Each structure stands twice: as C-alpha cells, then as structure tokens.
Amino acid sequence: MTEGGAGKSGEAPATVEATMTIKKAPRAEVEELPKAIVRRVVKDKLSQLASGGEEEDVSVQKDALLAFSESTRIFIHYVSAT
C-alpha cells in the first residue's frame, strides 16, 4: 500500500475535470410568462367581448401577445411589491 493514497490522487483531477466540463442547460427566464397560457386567456376574453358571449374564433397578432405578456408581467411585479 502506498501512503497518502497516491493511486487515488491521480483520479481526483479527472473527476474535477469531468465535473467542470458539464455544461448548464439554457433555462427560460424566470420572469417570463408561459406564452400558450397568455394566448389562451387573451383569445378567450377577446372572443367573449367580440361576440357577446358566443364562441367566435379571434386571431391575435404576435406583437399584441407580446404586449399583453409584458404588461401582465409588470402588473404582477407591481402587485407583489405593494
């Protein structure tokens, strides 16, 4: 047997090296709201307002959905801060 675990000392750098090469997966921004849910809520409400309660298909542009999402996010921050 060797003193100080000489055989193990060679393994430690490899383990550290392997750990350092693991890349973090890109994650969605925490503050970003789910786009599908925002789209569903906006389309449901706009179709109710447009048809007086009847089911009607309403199309919403991408920029409008982005504006709704951003304004909702800011509103949530405001409500949670006060």
UniProtKB/TrEMBL annotation:
One example GO MF annotation: chromatin DNA binding
Localization: Nucleus
Assigned keywords, A-Z: Nucleus
Gene3D superfamilies: Histone, subunit A (1.10.20.10)
InterPro entries linked: DNA_Pol-Epsilon_Subunit (IPR051377), Histone-fold (IPR009072)
Source organism, top-level taxon: Eukaryota
Name under which the protein is recorded: Transcription factor CBF/NF-Y/archaeal histone domain-containing protein
Native source species: Ensete ventricosum (Abyssinian banana)
